């Protein structure tokens, strides 16, 4: 049986940062992945390809201030594919330079030091002398709705050489979370008649309601139906009927395509039940050192359900590596409150930390200040004069959270996240000479209102 210091189950963002860190520190590392490549779902069918599409459409929307411009969607798909290929090649080169090994196969945990791998060539077992990192990610959730198999998933849109290379004239998007709303946003700009169907009382229901209410009027035209659970999907020739609504309030719409966007669920490797690794439907239970109830087995990224984002997975991966190097004694911890989240609708919305709805539940007294982006030079240059920057502090003027809606939100939120992470005060932000003309200037402008 081959032996390594550390074995990772998965080779995406929750695994490879740890693998590189450990390898540089003299540990031997084996990565096991079903796809056999270093990527994870983010590159395969998630954040990178979807943003390649969305950012291209966003650029098109900016150009339409100067004329009636259009672009063939198949060319957008070609661009998306080229970005994915560039990054796959980049990862391959990084692997070679680091001298890291990936085995393509399905992993099963035999005991707290042994992993069995089933591949095309048979079954093999590998032993870990220090730790195992479970980084098996998540997959698209498809609810048990009659006709659910007729709907597209995000993989049909965003995987390499995807199924969808031509957009429909109309689409029903089932699910009003960030994936559904991002897709609805770019499709509407490209001329698709979009209906979003959400079973809960509002879209993006896990996010601060006041923040979401400020975004929705800025989005491209779409029909949003809330409190509307989908009952069934039926094919009618080349069209589809989507039946939805509560008892006594049933409705039906006819569309050319349906997208299932109701979220993702963790993928658990076989063997965790036999080993007694604690988990529920949301993910494997871990402490903030990323340890499971078995201290030399870690679970990082989407599989633990804490913060299902690629950049959070990378940070969790490094937390695990640092604690493994300390002989599985925690010396590093993940802070979910300092992880920024961007919804890549057009326009964007980004947030971090403790927002008002959460502060009220926690009994935290807070102060707030804002900067209206209509005053921003870069927003004026981009013809995107809407939205705001809003920052929240505790009574000591320490930054506890914030959000940005509109121009460059996904970039600007990172500085607020740094302030949350490092316990910076509003004075620290007020005294920063932000570059002009950049939307970051709005941070010190907002801070100076209270400082």
From TrEMBL:
In Swiss-Prot or TrEMBL terms, this protein is called Dihydrolipoamide dehydrogenase component (E3) related protein
SUPFAM superfamilies, per this entry? Answer: FAD/NAD(P)-binding domain, FAD/NAD-linked reductases, dimerisation (C-terminal) domain
InterPro entries per record: Class-I_Pyr_Nuc-Dis_Oxidored (IPR050151), FAD/NAD-bd_sf (IPR036188), FAD/NAD-binding_dom (IPR023753), FAD/NAD-linked_Rdtase_dimer_sf (IPR016156), Pyr_nuc-diS_OxRdtase (IPR001100), Pyr_nucl-diS_OxRdtase_dimer (IPR004099)
- Asked whether the keyword Flavoprotein is assigned, the reply is yes
One annotated GO molecular function is:
dihydrolipoyl dehydrogenase (NADH) activity
Domain FAD/NAD(P)-binding residue range list: 4-316
Family in the record:
Belongs to the class-I pyridine nucleotide-disulfide oxidoreductase family.
Its GO biological process annotations read: 2-oxoglutarate metabolic process
């Amino acid at each position: 049986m081959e032996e390594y210091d550390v074995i990772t189950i998965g080779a995406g963002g929750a695994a490879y940062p740890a693998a590189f860190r450990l390898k540089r520190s003299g540990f031997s590392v084996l990565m096991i992945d079903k796809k056999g490549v270093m990527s994870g779902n983010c590159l395969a069918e998630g954040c990178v390809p979807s943003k390649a599409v969305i950012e291209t459409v966003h650029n098109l929307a900016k150009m339409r201030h100067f004329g009636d411009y259009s672009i063939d969607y198949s060319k957008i798909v070609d661009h998306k594919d080229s970005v994915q290929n560039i990054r796959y090649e980049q990862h391959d080169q990084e692997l070679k330079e680091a001298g890291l090994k990936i085995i393509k196969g399905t992993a099963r945990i035999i005991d707290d030091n042994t992993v069995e791998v089933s591949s095309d060539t048979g079954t093999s077992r590998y032993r870990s002398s220090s730790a195992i990192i479970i980084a098996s990610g998540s997959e698209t959730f498809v609810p048990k709705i009659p006709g659910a198999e007729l709907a597209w998933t995000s993989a049909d849109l965003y995987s390499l050489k995807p199924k969808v290379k031509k957009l429909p004239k109309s689409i029903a998007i089932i699910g009003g979370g960030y994936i559904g709303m991002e897709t609805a946003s770019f499709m509407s700009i490209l001329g698709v008649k979009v209906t979003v169907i959400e079973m809960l009382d509002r879209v993006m229901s896990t996010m601060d309601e006041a923040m979401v209410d400020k975004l929705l009027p800025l989005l491209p035209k779409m029909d949003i139906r809330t409190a509307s659970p989908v009952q069934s999907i039926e094919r009618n020739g080349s069209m589809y009927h989507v039946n939805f609504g509560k008892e006594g309030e049933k409705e039906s719409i006819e569309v050319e395509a349906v997208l299932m966007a109701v979220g993702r669920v963790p993928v658990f490797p076989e063997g965790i039940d036999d080993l007694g690794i604690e988990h529920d439907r949301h993910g494997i239970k871990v402490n903030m050192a990323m340890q499971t109830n078995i201290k030399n087995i870690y679970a990082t990224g989407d599989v633990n359900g804490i913060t299902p984002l690629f950049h959070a997975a990378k940070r969790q991966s490094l937390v695990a590596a640092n604690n493994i190097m300390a002989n599985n004694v925690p010396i590093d911890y993940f802070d979910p409150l300092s992880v920024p989240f961007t919804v890549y609708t057009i326009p964007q919305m980004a947030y971090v930390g403790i927002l008002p709805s959460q502060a009220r539940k926690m009994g935290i007294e807070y102060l707030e200040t804002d900067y209206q982006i209509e005053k921003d030079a870069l927003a004026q240059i981009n013809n995107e004069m809407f939205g705001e920057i809003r920052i929240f502090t505790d009574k000591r003027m320490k930054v506890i959270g914030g959000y940005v809606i509109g121009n460059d939100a996904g970039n600007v939120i990172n500085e607020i996240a740094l302030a949350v992470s490092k316990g910076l005060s509003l004075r620290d932000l007020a005294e920063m000479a932000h570059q002009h003309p950049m939307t970051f200037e709005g941070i010190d402008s907002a801070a100076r209102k209270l400082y």
